[in-house]
Amino acid sequence: MKEGLKESIVTHPTDWVNSVAIVEKPDKSLRICIDPHDLNKAIKRPHHLMPTFDEAIQKHEGAKFFTKLDARHGYWSLVLDEESSEPTTFATPFGRFKFRRMPFGLISAQDEFQRRMEEAFEEVPRFSVIVDDIIISGKSETEHDVNTRAALTRARKRTVKLNKAKCILKSKSIPYFGHVISKDGIHPDLNKVNALKEMPQPRNREELQTLLGMLNYLSCYIPNLSSQNEPLRTLSKQQKFVWEEVHDNAFDTIKKSICSTISPFNPSVGNLELQVDASKSGIGAVLIQNENIISFSSRSLNTTEQKYSQIEKELYAIVLEFVTSIST
Predict the structure, then answer these.
(1) Mind listing the domains of the chain with CATH numbers?
(2) pLDDT category of residue 292 using cuts at 50, 70 and 90
């Protein structure tokens, strides 16, 4: 609390009160959050469109050099006016305080922060940002340096503070949301792959949900994932958690698939080839250019869709792949 007061993140009480939650961050430091359940009901969300991972990396096609920046303190860089600050009051054993900066948990926080970040760097070439993760790139070292200098200049002018410990300058590859981006394309982050490879059998529904969440990060590297993980998804929805041989087989098959997968590469302007397939419970597609795999995609079929004929399922896979590609 002393640090929060010193940095003008929080200040002293009002008549409002929210519950407080202390969350441990990945680096073991603590983050102060409020329980905004009731407060969020009164907030009108601005609904700023959040870019997808695919949209972000498309801005770096053909790049050979990359810089990754991290916005320090994220939401806390947004100053609240007095009227907005009052309702963020929270109670602690040391008394009541209110936020002077945007707290984590508010329904409008991510939309507002993303909008501010895009505005701050809107004139920077080969630039993308998803919340507080920033990427700048260049097809040549000179282009990269010019773009990075432009981004740093904008950060200084717009008072966007950076976390030096998390910044990566002029690298030929960078980690980004569970992937690694380089001049050769997009690859699975080895830390994610190894975590999946070494993951023990889930013992309960919560651990199974963790596994399924990890697979979402790696889905573009695993062909026919929706068919392979169908037993696991079905188990996650059942009232009673009973792990059986069919789940063991699915778990082992997925591990082997991701550990032996071919890393997709970045497409360029030119002809693309789409191959699709369908089973009783799922459809899958692989996008190819010049015999190089760009990405895998798959999804499960609901009860109605499972009644489609084989050709209807395959046509459905084509339509879904086009819709996904156009939207990204």
Answers:
(1) 2-182 (3.30.70.270), 184-328 (3.30.70.270)
(2) low
